[in-house]
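Possible race condition, two jobs.
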Amino acid sequence: MVSPRSSASRSKAPSKPAASGPGRPKDLGKRAAILDAAKHLFAREGFNGVSMDQIAAEAGVSKLTVYSHFGDKDALFAAAVQAKCEEMLPDTLFELELTGGLRDQLKAIAQAFFALVTSEEAISTHRMMMVPGNIDDKLKQTFWEAGPQRTHDAFAAMLQALVSKGELDIPDVATASAQFFTLIKGEVHARMTCGLCSRPGPVDARQHVDATVDMFLRAYGRR
């Protein structure tokens, strides 16, 4: 049992200053600047064409700061991919509490995904990934888990919740998730990657998204 004297002594003790050192919170502004620089440089120059010195200079920080926040170049690449996906496809898009009907929510997700995969950064990154020997298999897996897999998993979880509510009839949500995003990418993504066409305008993109969502609902809508 603690005595009143010891309790009083504790109450009068001055508060200690916040601890500093390796465990202190990182500067969020610098982290954001590093991620922004990494997103642009990796997309423009490729993974092997970018050094940590370049990223530090672009972000306006020291190379030591870059390593302090992300550890190594592989981890920074994964963080840059994830940040781009979260920027274009925020987690809130997959929440069932959003206002509007199911069709509107699917269209919102489809529009955001189509904008992401047809962006200049995404097309450049895809081309970089396809060059044999450009990056190793481990980094390709890192890219997949940080970007596409995160999106597929979030959408599959949303579909499962909708199945449980009786709003969709899907026997395999993982397959349905893959089908949805493959349909959204469509032929245009492959043609853009090959340099055969430019990014679709807003009207064409909207028509493509609307037709794809309608097809998905015809396949998996509640009967």
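Job #2 (started ~2 s after job #1):
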Amino acid sequence: MPFGRTSVVAAVLFAASVLLGVAAWLVLRPALARAVAVVATVLALMAACSGVEFLGPSLYGVESDGDTEVVALSSDGSFEVVLLHYPEFMTGFDVLRIRSRAGLRSREANQDLACFATPFDGLGPEGTFGTARFLSDHEIEVTEAGQPWATRFDSRTLLAVSTLSHGCQ
């Protein structure tokens, strides 16, 4: 969901403010154009500053590397579980999240369904992510080192009843 990323939203807000100022400068009378251009410049700077605030490190220390992998799909095709990778020096995090599949109205849960710390050596100690699958339309099973763990989630909010964390912050 690249258009839901904070950096994209901040860039669009910045560009919209700049374009508003340029359009006002070209179309309006000089005095009014200057006023609109000043307001647009202030809005652009606010958008840029706000974007920088949100572009800081995530809960896992860095932003996701952008690679998402669908690891489970509900039987009716309405929901999916995606795996996000957060690389970090000497370790990383694999995070599972629930997404709806409703075209332009699709959304991703703002809650991690499960998080697994992954070592840099790639051997995967006990407690690493195995598989995920839907037991029903609103129930998910995740295997951790061969051990199953299940939870339900609300289809409206996409929030899980319980979450799983192994070695995460």
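The CA atoms of residues 33 and 162 lie 54 Å apart.
Logs attached separately.
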